[in-house]
Amino acid sequence: MATALLITALVLPVVLFWLLKSRTRLNGWVAAAISIAAGWTLNLAWASAAHESIAIAARFGWVCPTVLVALTWLVMRFKRQRAA
After folding, report:
1. How far apart are CA 8 and CA 25, in angstroms?
2. What range defines the domain where residue 60 resides?
3. How far apart are CA 31 and CA 29, in angstroms?
4. CA 27, CA 51: separation in Å to the nearest integer?
5. 66 with 36: CB under 8 angstroms?
6. Angle between helical axes of 63-83 and 28-49 (0-180°, round to 10)
7. C-alpha radius of gyration, the chain, whole number
8. How many domains does the chain have?
């Protein structure tokens, strides 16, 4: 269960940001905030399920989703520039 939560916490922010940016008219910042919040929530769920430190996950669980969303944004921007 904990492994599935961790993998989902890593994949969901990327997929969610990509879907929100490509299928809706949401502002990029709003799509990023929603995706990061979803990843952070799953990081908290993983820490709880894996009996890890929830305090650390609460404080720093947003870092990994933020990096993943930023990398996704860069890839999407690069692809858009190459297509033009």
Report:
1. 25
2. 2-83
3. 5
4. 36
5. yes
6. 140
7. 14
8. 1
Q: How many Cβ atoms are within 10 Å of 56's Cβ, its own excluded?
A: 11
Q: Could you give the CA distance from residue 70 to residue 35 in angstroms, rounded to a whole number?
A: 11
Tokens of residue 20, six digits: 């929100």
Q: Exposed, middle or buried: residue 84 (CB in 10 Å: 0-12, 13-18, 19+)?
A: exposed
Q: How does pLDDT run along the chain (84 residues), one tens digit per residue?
A: 889 999 999 999 999 999 999 898 899 999 999 999 999 999 999 999 999 889 999 999 999 999 999 999 999 999 988 887
Distance CA 36, CA 43 (A): 10
Q: CA 19 to CA 21: how far, in whole Å?
A: 5
Q: What is the DSSP string of 14-62?
A: HHHHHHHHHHS---HHHHHHHHHHHHHHHHHHHHHHTT--HHHHHHHTT
